[in-house]
From TrEMBL, chain B:
CDD domains in alphabetical order: TM_PBP2 (cd06261)
Highest taxon of source: Bacteria
GO molecular function, one term: transmembrane transporter activity
Domain called ABC transmembrane type-1: residue spans: 75-263
Keywords: Cell membrane, Membrane, Transmembrane, Transmembrane helix, Transport
Annotated region described as Disordered, given as residue ranges: 343-399
Entries under InterPro entries matching the protein: AA_ABC_transptr_permease_3TM (IPR010065), ArtM/GltK/GlnP/TcyL/YhdX-like (IPR043429), MetI-like (IPR000515), MetI-like_sf (IPR035906)
Name recorded for this polypeptide: Glutamate transport system permease protein gluD
Main location: membrane
Gene Ontology CC annotations of this record: ATP-binding cassette (ABC) transporter complex
Gene Ontology biological process terms from the UniProt entry: amino acid transport
Entry-linked NCBIfam families: HEQRo_perm_3TM (TIGR01726)
Chain intervals with Basic and acidic residues compositional bias: 343-353, 366-384
From TrEMBL, chain C:
Cell compartments where the protein resides: Cell membrane
Name of the featured protein: Glutamate transport system permease protein GluC
Keyword Membrane: yes
GO annotation, biological process: amino acid transport
PROSITE patterns: ABC_TM1 (PS50928)
Transmembrane segments annotated in the record for this chain: 23-41, 62-80, 92-109, 191-217
Native species: Bifidobacterium reuteri DSM 23975
TrEMBL record, chains D, E:
One example GO MF annotation: ATPase-coupled polar amino acid-transporter activity
Keyword tags: Amino-acid transport, ATP-binding, Cell membrane, Hydrolase, Membrane, Nucleotide-binding, Transport
Name of the protein: ABC-type polar-amino-acid transporter
Membrane topology: Peripheral membrane protein
């Protein structure tokens, strides 16, 4: 945003602060979203140094697309009807599910139902914790933190027993935890991660969908998943993954 | 501010006193050391979780990459917001501070309402509101502008009050002298009073800078990637968020501390250019429109300590100038309780009761206080009651 | 408009302000206690106490409250296991109170000290010269005057505390005003300005009287010299 | 004692004066006072002036007439209204009733005319009131430039002239706070003179000064008197009053109780109040 | 000129004094000073007193002896250590070496004894230092009640007595800020006297006062001297020194340079410093 020359480049919004998905590290960007974005960009005809990465915090994603600040967004962006009123999606490129992250040695939690009387951490403003409390465990105590790292730290030190959010994010956390945390591995919702684009841009959606199909077919998708969840025995929910990208093609 | 708090309470100790102090000193020192060690031990070996002192956790928080990728960019964002907010706040403050001094009632009233409103609303609320609003409105960088604007509004209102109390703290003579030379009221305000108020307020404005710097950290709540946010991110990579936050805290501390020192260094230099007291503590008046509490604090400033901590000798100042209240001089003093009775009734009372030969002081209290009269050349001019007759909101008597 | 009113039956705005007021009152109480202890340390003739209190004040004056609040949860609670209750909501409330108190105590200490500084040294010397002892001159002469000089800065500190109580959001207190305002804006972004004004005027209404009272008191009690 | 006191003032004055004149003979300086015309014209005239501060009646039926070139000294106990009277003359204080005329014209109530009139009446305050944000030179040039719209260069020449005359030209670039009280007060006099005022008001110009500095200011005032400036001085310096005054006005309780020549006033005060006052003021 | 000055002081004093005595004859007042015993006893004795402020040597080998009933006036240029010496006598300032004895007893270092000793040495400050949070009456009764454990009633009678004597009894219920400087200083004297001190220290008691108020304070001091109070006064009031002092001590640069009777000191100062000082102080 700070005056860098952006002509002839593609601007992609990602998260900068989610290890495993989108994370800024030593001036480069790593994570599953980043890998998918790079692949798509390549298929669209942009080399890696023709990508301008922009931070797309959750609450600003729609606005960034509408203003034309970015050309597309890959930032754990779930496809919902509400959002489709403002923007269009391509994809999905991944189907995540809400899951739980627990301490490795803690065998007492094997699903959301086990959380009664336990303590659960989620980030401020997300609804995932509320879902657990409403649907699975009414006795759970909730703690809100500004970021997942804080939640994970709290989990480390024992003041909470589980962290909840999408499994791929949890897997990223677990992979950075030096083997001290594990993902439970029983996702209990489905989140279809899409590529956010400007509303009504069906041409771009088709191109992106084709790129995603290619990515799944040539094995890069598999590699990207396993690269970014190294050190955990996480596998994406096979019932839905890899997904069939068909969003946004009809205007 | 001269710190007399110690000498005011305690006599110079004798030999016995010195021994007691020495023992207490050791005891207290040891107690604090023990507490510190206990905390460190707890961190070293917590009941659950990791040893927070291990090098494994500290190294990623200290190494080169942490600085180049996280702390320094974060600090830059923090500084960027701080500087712009300060510039904005000073502009805002000058406009509305002077606005509150203008002869025009309407402008004065509007300025007063804006300033009081901005001072009362928590900065965090302002930030959240602007952030969401700008995001919905589709502005670029909403969190940056939200941080800056919220800080401008709040700190600008403080600066406005500093300007106002700076002008009010000027001895009335400055204004009178310019009027007597044939300058108009507005010329006097622009040429003489406001520049001096600015010099006087500068140290306090630097202190306010510390507040701005600290408050930028609220930006992390609205996802502004300032120093605090960046160190959080760094921490989420290695799960050493405590360590990275400690580093952030250290950086904040050093920056704020340096600014505080600057604020303390400034007054001496600024004092040469203003007749109002230049002090590092922002003496922004508290309540809606009333600036008069400044004078209670000002009393302390008259006590200037000698180099070796002994007792200063000459601090009796019987006359203080005040600019803002010059037109309401007597009423304000009356309200503030200096005159229990009206001077006239009292004079009669005095005369009636006065015995022959009792040295008759010609109405003591009033006359001796009105005129600036200083002991031996050092002209102390202190604000007595600020804003007395010039503000619409709070100028009415408080009771 | 109807939807707007419905917003208020749905969200407990008054309750949120109540949370902030409670945070403020408790923190005011504890920071006052701690502040008095600090100021006593700070002006005592015992240098180690002075150093510690001075360091405390410098430290907390120069740290962002947000960081302190985060440390309360991740440091004091998670690592040092400082816990007030097994119920999270209560626990975080008290952690926030602790953080606010620690932070505000530094300012209380400074306010009290500036009050003591308003007492000219001559007052103490006159008391000593008359043969009054330490306790006598402290209780009869110095402290009464010092207290009166502290009223205005303490009032300012209280106002700042009330406003700072919104930062409790950073210590996971999710029922206070700034969190509630965020939630309401999330829910009804179309009336964002009205929502903001509601909360803003809530604070104006709370703060103006405190300010007026402080000004009145400090003028009323001011030591005339 | 007043005799000796007076002598002391005189001897010091002549000494200082000589050196001042030395200084002025080096450069040619313009005369301080516009050439005299009609010596009997009333420059300042107060008739039936009344003033209250709230309930307090501070000026009671004040009648006063100061002719061109006259030096009037106002004395009286503290709180008697001397300063207030002085300040009403250039309307720093409003009056309740009565009439004040400067050079025959009634005192304007506001706006540009008031500012212009004030420019013609120089005022020197007890507490100097130099503008703390301006250098000495800027202090003196400010009003000529802003009010009289004099070119900067010319104003500076004039200012240096006047500063030389009061003996502080070497300090022109300093800030007021760097000068001693006596020097500041002399600058204040120069600042007032820079507007070429028809009359000068002095409100206890020496009472905020250290004793050692009193005379350097009084010397300047004496010289000014000698040059024919019309002056109204409120002062407690009886030596100066004796030496320089053409007339002494004694005020008490807001009234003018006596008006007389210095000799008559000091030797044979008519009222009890004046006697009492003199005894108080002259004993130490 | 000093001659006339002196005379003036004398004449005014006797006038005032008469009226004070008139006042006191209306009510029967206790004598201010405990009945004299041995007139040659040394009440205050300083031997080889040394004091530094950091590098600054402010008191250099001070030797001083004040006998009962003596009035000692200390004069000297600013910064010569007069105040410091005065303040060491009741240990508001500690000394580095040497010995100070009050009424034969060495100065205690701390605690109750120090407080008791201080109660026996009255002190009057330049800046009055009345307790700003107490009424005039409470200012005077505080120490007798708290230190001497006098019953409240008795203390108040005593206080009113003393206030009447210094002429401010009509102001007893007011706060200090409502009094003029002269009145405040007289209250301060009454407050010190209420402890029935053996010796009174005055540190420039009149130099923070408006000129008209100086004499009302000096009068009280003169009367005190006449009643036989032992006094050490730092002052610049030469009229008072001549009139009331038994002995004059001249200090400069932290040393006592001369000790003499007033006549000798004023007419024939021995040292150059004293001559120079006198010439400066007596010219205005
Ligand atoms: N507490 C102190 N710390 C350091 N220096 C001091 C202190 N008190 C006094 N001095 C210095 O000691 C010297 C003597 O001071 P002192 O006040 O005794 O002089 P003085 O004769 O009373 O002067 P004055 O006539 O101005 O009152 C001065 O140079 C003064 O600056
Ligand atoms: N602005 C004001 N408001 C109310 N009362 C005032 C004001 N200025 C002066 N007074 C009162 O008016 C009376 C006359 O004051 P003025 O200053 O003229 O006396 P003065 O003769 O100059 O005294 P001094 O010798 O102390 O300067 C005094 O009683 C004073 O308290
Ligand atoms: Mg006056
Ligand atoms: Mg002294």
């Amino acid at each position: 945003a700070c005056g860098a020359d952006e002509t002839g480049k593609i601007r992609i919004g990602i998260k900068f602060d989610q290890p495993g998905l989108g994370f800024k590290k030593s001036g480069t960007y790593v994570g599953f979203d980043v890998d998918v974005a790079k692949y798509i960009a390549k298929k669209l005809g942009y080399s890696e140094d023709e990508i301008v990465w922009k931070e797309a915090p959750s609450k600003q994603r729609e606005a960034m697309l509408q203003n034309g600040d970015v050309d597309m967004i890959l930032a754990s962006y779930s496809i919902t009807d509400e959002r489709k009123k403002a923007v269009s999606f391509a994809g999905p490129y991944f189907v995540a599910g809400q899951d739980l992250l627990v301490r490795k040695d803690d065998q007492s939690i094997n699903g959301p139902e086990d959380l009664n009387g336990k303590r659960l951490c989620s980030v401020t403003g997300s609804t995932s914790a509320a879902t657990v409390k409403e649907k699975f465990a009414s006795e759970v105590q909730l703690m809100e933190q500004p970021g997942y790292a804080e939640c994970a730290t709290a989990l480390f030190s024992g003041i909470v027993d589980a962290v909840t959010t999408d499994d791929i994010i949890l897997a990223g956390l677990a992979s950075a935890s030096r083997g001290k945390l594990r993902v439970v591995g029983k996702p209990f919702t489905q989140e279809y991660y899409g590529v956010g684009i400007k509303k009504g841009d069906t041409k771009l959606a088709v191109k992106i969908n084709n790129a995603i199909v290619d990515m799944i077919q040539d094995g890069s998708w598999e590699n990207a998943v396993s690269d970014n969840t190294k050190g955990t025995d996480y596998t994406p929910d096979v019932r839905y993954n890899p997904p069939t990208p068909n969003e946004g093609e009809d205007a | 501010m001269a710190d007399t708090s110690n000498s005011v309470l305690f006599d110079a100790p004798g030999p016995k006193g010195r021994r007691t102090i020495r023992i207490a000193n050791w005891v207290a020192g040891i107690v604090f050391a023990v507490v510190l060690v206990l905390i460190l031990m707890r961190l070293h070996n917590p009941p659950d979780g990791e040893n927070q002192l291990s090098w494994e956790l500290w190294k990623p928080a200290l190494e080169r990459e942490a600085w180049t990728d996280f702390y320094l960019p974060g600090l830059w964002m923090t500084v960027k917001a701080t500087v712009l907010a300060v510039v904005g706040a000073v502009a805002f403050g000058l406009v509305f501070g002077v606005g509150r001094l203008l002869p025009n009632t309407l402008l004065r009233g509007i300025s007063a309402i804006i300033v009081e409103f901005c001072r009362a609303v928590p900065v965090l609320l302002l930030m959240i509101f602007f952030w969401r609003w700008f995001a919905f409105a589709g502005l670029p960088d909403p969190s940056y502008w939200a941080v800056v604007l919220a800080l401008v509004l709040y700190n600008g209102s403080v600066v406005a009050e500093l300007v106002r109390s700076g002008v009010g703290n000027l001895p009335g003579g400055q204004r009178e002298a310019s009027l007597a030379l044939g300058l108009t009221e507005t010329q006097s305000l622009v040429q003489i009073e406001v520049p001096q108020a600015v010099y006087a307020m500068l140290p306090a404005a630097v202190t306010q800078l510390v507040v701005v710097l600290k408050d930028t950290a609220l930006g992390s709540i609205i996802m502004y990637t300032d120093l605090l946010q960046e160190s959080r991110r760094l921490g989420s990579m290695y799960f050493n968020i405590l360590q990275t936050l400690v580093m952030a805290a250290v950086i904040y501390f050093i920056a704020c501390w340096l600014l505080s020192r600057l604020a303390e260094w400034l007054p001496e230099r600024m004092q040469q250019r203003t007749a109002a007291p230049a002090e590092p503590e922002p003496l922004a008046p508290i309540a809606a429109g009333d600036a008069s509490n400044v004078n209670q604090i000002a009393v302390a400033k008259e006590v200037e300590e000698l180099p070796f901590g002994g007792a200063p000798r000459k601090y009796h100042v019987h006359h203080r100038g005040t600019n803002a209240s010059i037109r309401n001089w007597r009423r304000t003093r009356y309200e503030q309780g200096y005159d229990v009775e009206h001077p006239e009734t009292e004079e009669q009372h005095d005369r009636g009761a006065g015995k022959p030969g009792t040295p008759q002081a010609p109405d003591p209290k009033l006359s001796s206080r009105e005129h600036e009269h200083s002991d031996h050349g050092t002209v102390f001019k202190r604000g007595d009651n600020i804003g007395g007759g010039r503000t619409s909101l709070g100028a009415k008597p408080k009771i | 408009m109807n939807g707007f009113l419905q917003l208020f039956s749905q969200y407990d705005v008054l309750g949120a302000f109540l949370v902030n007021i409670e945070l403020t009152l408790w923190s005011a109480l504890f920071s006052m206690i701690l502040g008095v202890i600090l100021v006593v340390m700070r002006i005592s003739p015992i240098s180690s106490l002075r150093v510690v209190a001075g360091a405390y004040v410098e430290l907390f004056k120069n740290l962002p409250l947000t960081i302190i609040m985060v440390f309360m949860v991740l440091g004091a609670y998670a690592q040092l296991k400082l816990s007030f209750s097994d119920t999270f909501a209560t626990n975080f409330f008290w952690l926030a109170v602790t953080g606010l108190s620690l932070y505000t105590a530094a300012f209380v200490c400074e306010s009290l000290r500036s009050g003591i500084n308003t007492v000219p040294i001559g007052q103490a010397e006159a008391a000593r010269a008359l043969g009054l002892g330490f306790m006598q001159s402290a209780t009869e002469i110095i402290l009464p005057q010092a207290f009166r000089g502290s009223v205005a800065p303490l009032g300012n500190t209280l106002i700042a505390l009330l406003k700072n109580s919104t930062v409790a959001a950073a210590a996971s207190v999710s029922t206070e005003t700034s969190s509630l305002m965020s939630q309401m804006i999330e829910f009804r972004p179309d009336v964002i300005i009205q929502i903001f004004l509601i909360f803003a005027f809530g604070y104006v209404i709370l703060i103006i009287p405190i300010g007026m009272l402080t000004t009145y008191l400090s003028n009323k009690l001011a030591v005339r010299r | 004692m007043s005799e000796t006191n007076n002598e002391a003032v005189r001897s010091r004055t002549t000494h200082e004066q000589r050196s001042l004149q030395d200084a002025s003979s080096e450069r040619k300086l313009a005369p301080l006072v516009p050439a005299a015309e009609d010596p009997n014209r009333a420059l300042v005239e107060l008739t039936h002036v009344e003033k209250h501060f709230g309930d307090l009646h501070v000026l009671k039926d004040i009648n006063l007439r100061v002719t061109k070139g006259e030096v009037l000294v106002v004395v009286g106990p503290s709180g008697s209204g001397k300063s207030t009277m002085c300040r009403t003359i250039n309307r720093l204080e409003t009056i309740d009733s009565g009439d004040i005329r400067i050079d025959g014209k009634p005192l304007p109530q506001e706006g540009k005319e008031l500012a212009n009139l004030r420019a013609e009446v120089g005022m020197v305050f007890q507490s100097f009131n130099l503008f703390a944000n301006k250098t000495i030179l800027d202090n003196v040039t400010l009003a000529p430039i802003k009010v009289r719209h004099m070119p900067k260069k010319e104003a500076e020449d004039l200012a240096m002239d006047l500063l030389a005359r009061v003996g502080v030209d070497s300090q022109a670039a300093k800030m007021p706070s760097q000068l001693s009280g006596g020097q500041q007060q002399r600058v204040a006099i120069a600042r007032a003179l820079a507007m070429r005022p028809k009359v000068m008001l002095f409100d206890e110009p020496t009472s905020a000064l250290d004793p050692e500095m009193v005379n350097e200011v009084l010397d300047v005032m004496v010289e000014l008197a000698h040059e024919g400036m019309t002056m109204i001085c409120v002062t407690h310096e009886m030596g100066f009053a004796r030496k320089a005054a053409d007339r002494i006005v004694f005020m008490a309780n807001g009234q003018i109780l006596e008006e007389n020549t210095p000799e008559e006033f000091f030797e044979h005060p008519k009222t009890e109040r004046a006697k009492d006052f003199l005894s108080k003021i002259l004993t130490h």
